[in-house]
Task: structure prediction
Amino acid sequence: MADDTLTEKFVLAKQGMDLCTSPLVQYIAYAALERKAIQKNLAKTRALYKTKRDKMLKALETHFPEGCKWTTPIGGLFIFVRVPEKVNTKELIQDSIKKYKVAYVPGQSFFVNGTGTNTMRLNFSYPSMDEIEEGIKRLGQAIKERL
Result:
């Protein structure tokens, strides 16, 4: 157990991190905005993310079993997936990570009423095109094993 004085210092430091973005990050964002770095790269970035989104949507069609449904996002970096009711995605993630080396966010966290046990959120911004294809293929196999 930590000394009360030390604990108080850590609590104050944590509050500072929780309440606002660090000044350094704010300065970096400000400089990027001033130099129009975001505007200069926006078209290229949007095209890249659209290509990755479309790749993941096609992979879902190819590799996920019948009974799965998903969103087609017009913004953002995630696809929200609903799998058959009998598949609990909070349980599935353990096998998915250990056996298939694929992770996702179980969707139940996004339901205030505790439902959504058969949902997941997939990110398409980080993985490469090949990783998207292979990851969705592996995840599809993990779901099929649960059915």
